[in-house]
Amino acid sequence: MISKIEEVRNLFEGDLIQAAKTGAYDDLYLKYFSRLQGLTTLLLKELPGLNEEAKKTYGPLINSLQVAQKNAIEQGKLAYEQQLQNNPLIDLTLPQSPKSTGMLHPVTQTIREMNAFFRYYGYSIVEGPEIENAEYNFRKLNLPEGHPATDLQDTLFIKSPDLMLRTHTSSVEARVLSSQKPPIRVAFPGRCYRNETPNASNGSFFYQYQGVVVDKGITIQNLMSTLEEFHKHLFVDAIELRFRYKYYPEVSPGLGTDIRCQLCAGKGCEVCKYRGWLEVLGSGMIHHNTLKMCGIDPNVYTGFAFGMGLDRLVMSKFGITSQKSLYDGSLAYI
Amino acid sequence: MKIPVEWLKEYIDIKKSPNELAEAFTALGLMLDKPTDGVVLDLEHRMDRSDWLAIIGCARDLAAMLGVPLKLPAAHAQKGKMPGKGQLVDIKVEAPDLVRRFNTRVFRGLKVGESPKWLKERLETYGMHAINNIVDVTNYVMIEYGQPMHAQDLKKFDKQEIVLRRARTDEGITTLDGTFIKLDEDTLVLAENSNLIGIGAIVGTQKTAVDQTTTDIVLDAGNYDQANIRRTARQLKIYNETVLRTDKFLHPQLTQVAIERATKLILDLAGGEYYENVDYYPNPPQPKQMELRTNRISQISGMDFEQEAVRRILTSLDYKIVEEDDVSWQLEVPYFRTDVDVEDDVVSDILRISNYANIPHTPIQGAPPKEITSKIYAFEEGLRDILVALGLHEHITDPLVQHGAEAKNQIVLENAPTAEKDALRVSVTETLMRVVASYRKHGIKEASVFELGNTYARDGAKYTETRVLEIIHAGSGSAVENTAQLKSIVAGIFAELGLANVAYKKDGNSAKMYVRDVYLGTLKPASVTLHTEALLSVAQRTARVVYQLQNRIAEDLSLLLDMKQVGGEIFDFVKHQPLVWKVEITQEYTDAKLGDNKKSITLKVVFDTQDQPKVNEVRNRIIAALEKDFGVKVRA
After folding, report:
1. CATH 3.30.56.10 domain residues, chain B
2. Are B633 and B627 in contact (CB under 8 A)?
3. Which of A101, B229, B416, B530 has its CA at 20 to 30 Å from residue B42's CA atom?
4. pLDDT per position as a tens digit, A65-116
5. What is the rounded distance in angstroms from the CA atom of residue A122 to the CA atom of residue A226?
């Protein structure tokens, strides 16, 4: 028996030296420890057939052999792997191009950032059709035909005067107010169209992001607070806002919102057209007529609405210089 | 609206710098549009306030905000002389639906000449050229009060009349700047003795223009149907200082204020005498009444205003307080405020004049309402995450395309700006393909891109928008390899959605995908279109399949089949055999050595057992069936 043990021990030492060269430690393990034919396994299998005395003599010997071999394999393997990593061909200072996930479109990224804010404050995200009728795109928003304010809305018609591509996401506001009962808290990003000849820098569609709140006791103070918090979320806590009166047909009173130009710190530059402020958003208290036309009693409920174009914001965030390039395949992602 | 600072000071006593003035105007709703040079304030105009197209209108609001009085300029309110026999200029309104008022006066014995320096300077600072004292006065008063006026040389009239009527289709006009314009029947024109002398409220003609030789004039200030003027001006593409004002909601009463002021200036600057003439004004509107409830102010603003503060603002804006008590004000809206339509517009005035900067900010109180975000919105957001994790980039492309003659259900636009974009897309493939083409042009051959967008179709009177996920994969390998990669992306999406049994059915050059009888979309060699609503309807909640590692027996089956054969059927057959746990395609190729029109597919079949004899049995049965039922040669 002792000679058998010695034989296995010697054989293993030779194999261990080989394995250190080739790294074939898994094969080495199987040769000695495979369940059916491992050389050390076979020795262990002989133990139960021995008499008590022999068991006492050879048991510990075989066992210590087993432990020593397993340790040697483990350590050898570690050492081999370390040695592999010390391969002079591995140059850790040479960078590789990044392994990357896909990327969301900058507009989607911005919408998500905004959604995150509004969802936290209990807004639902809603949508509406892009093919709209005059009822929802104009009339319910207090924009009668021929009103000078429709100047802002050069419409792409599918069938004039009643079927068109929506000129703003306010049509979604009209739909939500007509179909939901207050309290209402919704935000709606979406694509809109204007009848403008596409040129080198502007395409025929753009994105807007709007929101609407209707409940008892909603005031212009709530609107101002919401916009203030929203801009802190979008930019920085220290962002400086300016609120001023501004006319929009679908609200009264209207509220224009500017942020202090961050490029020139308000001193005036080309980006802010030397105003020191950047106009970011239009808003106001939902017009009495709009609420009424949508079936909500304006004497019981009040509400606010706000809306902004997304494209300019996305462009400045991502350093993109033309609106068109957001959508024409000239964006590549790292 | 451009406001020369020195001119503004004619109406209010202020010592503020141009920048301070600009700041106050901005708060009031007249934002500074362009940087100021200290001489002129260029203020943005928002189309509602026709009185803000006049310096006096802007000055009134500024005076109210700053708490200083507004000084109105001198006017000649006295009656003129009665015209003698044959001296009356007849006014015939043949289009009464388009003309609300046509207020005229006649001046005789004038001395036309250069305007005084102050007048010329003011006009030029504003941006208008001085012409002669008569024309300059009409322009000056227009800028002051916002009412366009028109002076014509009476001696150039063939007949002492002005007819206001619709143009005939054969008529055209040569404007003051020498342009000839053809007219249509909706165009309001001014005529005398069948000569056209102007397009109503838009532009005059050379024929009756006032010049150095003029001694007698007829002066008119009109009020018209604003929508008609807008239409004509846009059609004729005329945008001048007159149209800027006449296509807004001006009040007919303004004609009187303006004509009295102009009379004063004409008599001062050109002498002569003035005669009463026709004031066509068949239906003077009643002054607008408005109730303002005190609690409405606080309902909108969340603030309580002192009664006295409200009164001061209302009065300084020229609201007439007809009646008042503790709960409400009964007001008469000043005529020039054609924008005031509802009570909240008066509330706006109060908040605006007290300056928005003084309103506190308070968060919304109360719990948010029930969530109504649609399932499909949330689902598509989830799809985006999956696609991005699979390494695909998102794109958004233009849904406006060129109308394809063969696309029967395509929605075509009526007034497309260009022929290349005159219809809505019927598939996202074509628009997203442009992204791949653009990438290729820039030397990027590998592109995996997706778009979540709409396709649009028309079915009779029904217009539909369909939500679509489009994926295009362009690889750098062979066509078979690229398609294999695309299929792997699609399989990855299905795996994420927990869809284990998607059937691919051959349909010409594409494969239609189904779960049970739900049609999910179509797979093509380089692109796939999936209907997200359909995906949502079959997606499983516990999406990803999780399993524990286990040793299983795997075997490769190399099949030789006909090029035309539907691989998916063979795949499905093998996949559904007992003990088969998973089937993967590990190789697909064709080679001359395989024979004509033959291809080879290697399936890696994984069995859910470690029992080799059982596996042998199943495998042999599969091989036998493939050879017998599918006519496939199994090579190994």
Report:
1. 2-66, 289-356
2. yes
3. B229
4. 999 999 999 999 998 888 887 777 878 888 888 788 899 999 999 999 999 9
5. 12
Whole-angstrom Cα distance, residue A102 to residue B473? 13
The CATH number of the domain covering residues in B289-356:
3.30.56.10
Residue B323 pLDDT class (50, 70, 90 cuts): very high
Greatest alpha-carbon pair distance for chain A in Å reads 113
Domain presence at residue A96: no
Asked if A9 and A22 touch (Cβ cutoff 8 Å), the reply is no
A185 chain-B contacts, CB cut-off 8 A: 368-369
Q: What is the CATH number of domain B553-634?
A: 3.30.70.380
Determine whether the interchain pair A219/B387 forms a contact, defined as Cβ–Cβ distance below 8 Å. no
CB pairs under 8 A between A and B: 244
Q: What is the ipTM of this complex?
A: 0.89
The half-sphere exposure of B417 on its side-chain side, counting CA atoms within 13 A, is 15
pTM for the model stands at 0.86
Please report, as a single letter, which amino acid is at residue B168. R
| Contacts with A19 (C-beta within 8 Å, 6 or more apart), sequence order | A25, A27, A28, A73, A76, A80
A121–B368 CB contact, under 8 Å:
yes
CATH of domain B375-538: 3.30.930.10
A273 touches chain B (CB under 8 A): yes
Residue of chain B minimizing CA distance to A156: B415
Q: How far is A150 from chain B (nearest CA, A)?
A: 10
- Write the residue in B377, B394, B415 that is nearest to A104 by C-beta: B394
A151 and A237 co-located in one domain:
yes
Q: Kindly report whether the peptide bond that precedes residue B73 is cis, defined as omega within 30 degrees of 0.
A: no
Domain B2-66 belongs to what topology? Phenylalanyl-tRNA Synthetase; Chain B, domain 1 (3.30.56)
Handedness of CA A214, A215, A216, A220 (dihedral sign): negative
Domain boundary among A33, A52, A85: A85
Instruction: Please measure the distance between the N-terminal and C-terminal CA atoms of chain B and give it in whole angstroms.
Output: 86
Closest CA to B619 of B562, B552, B554: B554
Residues A165 and A299 in one domain: yes
On whether both A271 and A318 belong to a single domain, the answer is: yes
pLDDT of residue B152: 96
